[in-house]
Amino acid sequence: MLMLKRFLILLLGSALLQNQAHAQGSLPAWKEGFWDIHFIETGAGNASFMVFPDGTTMLVDAGDLNKNLFDTKFFPLKSTPILPGRSKRPGQWISSYIKQVMPGNRKAGIDYALITHYHEDHYGQINRNSIEATNKAYQLSGLTDVDEELPISKLLDRGLDYPVDLRTYYSNNPTFSNYLKFIGHRIKNGLTHEALQAGSSKQICLLFNAKAFPGFVVRNIKSNNNVWSGEDEKTFQCFPDASMPKNDFNENPLSNAIKITYGKFSFYTGGDNTGYEGEAFPGRKNVEPAIAKAVGKITAMSLNHHGNRDANNDAFIKSLSPDVVVQQSWCSDQPGQDLAFRLVEKNTRDDSIAVFNTHMQQETQAYLGAWITKKFKSLHGHVVIRVTNQGNAYQIFVLDENKEKLEVVKTFGPYLTK
Ligand SMILES: [Zn+2]
């Protein structure tokens, strides 16, 4: 009997310990004044979600790439498996994540959604078997999947007219056609749709308590070929319009880019903008010098083009001089080796960059070697940057991407913003 009692006490004790460990592992809730940037790892493309200091919310991209199609077409490249598993579609996983981190009074939907460009790993991929929305007006994947559960108020993209009329150019593209149907239907049901205006600092703003956070500004840096000049809201062109092919152009260098500042802390995200051009790749442009000029030094950034070899060139990284870099990756060639090597070198401030990768595949790790990978702060998992104290301090959390319920596995900081 005594033995049984002891055993029960032991069992109870271990259950309590487990509960405690679990409680320690949950992400402390967002509070007014916090700016949270969540990089959500689904294996299917980019998705980040932000809660601004007054509770305004914004989604940047919601990818859902068709893996079977990609892995067959681009063999031996390999995409990341869907995380945390196939029981939900990537867009549904994004919604599930957002619902767990949404401020208590903001559960009804998302204020802003920014689609950087029209690639599947950024806004979803539709085929004839894609499931229909409840309203039967369009199908669900990526962005539309998120909107189904968390209706978006304002949708921003790169517009429908550059470098040609995209309604005609993409008329045989089921994902783009579905996107137009989605916009058409949702505009009648509460959605505002606008093209991102490069140079503007008023298109995305704090909606609930802007007066309390005067140091918080969202500056639109680039859209299509237009980039902010750094003066008022004036823009200039990254490259001569005539040099962009009209028949076989590349979406990547047309990506939208924004910079968000909160006091001393600043953050850059710019989709799949590229920093390389060559004759073998018509339509690929080096737009990074123009972006770097507009952005200046920043605290944290999401790497352009998932950290691919054709982006984040040496001059770009030196110019932005980030303290923290997040690589949203989903493919075995991400990051490019040259970039990974440069990122873990000492930077121009003779300081190391803290690099976080949302999912680096085993094959990629084998190719890069331990001397590079061991210098990454994290090789997999959702990443959360939490900026506090009016931008003067920040913390970084890595969350387990294999679990539906969010759980912190690593915490970094708090750090004072330099
Ligand atoms: Zn991409």
UniProtKB/TrEMBL annotation:
Keyword Signal among UniProt keywords: yes
Q: May I ask which residue range the UniProt record assigns to the signal sequence? A: 1-23
What UniProt keywords apply to this chain's record, in alphabetical order? Signal
Report the domain of life of the source organism. Bacteria
Q: What is the name attached to this protein's record?
A: Metallo-beta-lactamase domain-containing protein
Q: What is the lineage of its organism?
A: Bacteria, Pseudomonadati, Bacteroidota, Sphingobacteriia, Sphingobacteriales
